[in-house]
Design a protein that fits this description.
four-stranded mixed β-sheet; single chain; 9 helices; about 210 residues; about 55% helix
């Protein structure tokens, strides 16, 4: 089956806003989603960007409030109406649980969506092991086993490799989608992703250096 590559962080607001729509687009096109949970802080740093906590208050308010409000209404998804209480906690453990699930051969569309939905729709703390175990169980996965596997060197190395791949491929935010090598950044590009699956855009990515 043909694929769509999906780089994102398990706590990403904009990955959440586009999650259900993205999965519907992929299913309609008969494409398998290749999940690539990434250390977003490292990717942002490599791209020369500063973290959101270091950005001006006005920018953060717009990014985490007004934009989310509008897109949530447009996409028809529920949110808690504010930045989650524990959003400052690292998503590394949740990302590694996703990597562990992939490493065990499980489908992870449902798990990835559930993590995003719980964080932005229910104020769940994705750095809390018990919460991750519960959420995994809600999509019929063994959360305790995944948590153990997530702590292994094998999974940590794979997570690091995915992040290095993201950096090498110029990924600078979450979510980022690749359709046959063509990169689309942001859930607001999903309509373009849908079009690319039907008919590729002209020219190539990355551009040839002059």
């Amino acid at each position: 089956m043909a694929e769509i590559e999906y780089f994102y962080a398990a706590h990403s607001a904009y990955a959440y806003l586009g999650s259900a729509r993205f999965m519907a687009i992929a299913a309609a096109a008969g494409r398998r989603i290749v999940h690539k949970p990434v250390d977003l802080d490292r990717a942002l740093e490599a791209a020369g960007s500063i973290g959101f906590r270091e950005r001006p208050l006005g920018h953060r308010n717009y990014h985490f409030n007004r934009e989310i409000e509008r897109w949530a209404e447009y996409r028809g998804v529920r949110t808690i109406g504010r930045r989650p209480t524990h959003h400052h906690h690292s998503p590394d453990l949740a990302n590694c649980v996703l990597v562990a699930a992939m490493d065990e051969g499980h489908p992870v569309d449902g798990l990835a969506h559930r993590f995003l939905e719980a964080h932005w729709g229910e104020d769940a703390d994705l750095a809390d092991p018990a919460t991750l175990v519960r959420l995994a169980g809600e999509v019929d996965l063994d959360g305790d086993a995944l948590l153990v596997h997530a702590g292994t060197q094998r999974v940590r190395d794979r997570y690091d490799a995915i992040t290095r791949e993201a950096i090498d491929r110029h990924v600078f935010g979450s979510p980022t989608y690749f359709v046959d090598g063509d990169m689309f950044y942001g859930q607001d590009r999903l309509e373009l992703v849908e079009r690319a699956l039907e008919r590729p855009f002209a020219n190539t990515w990355p551009p040839i250096a002059s």
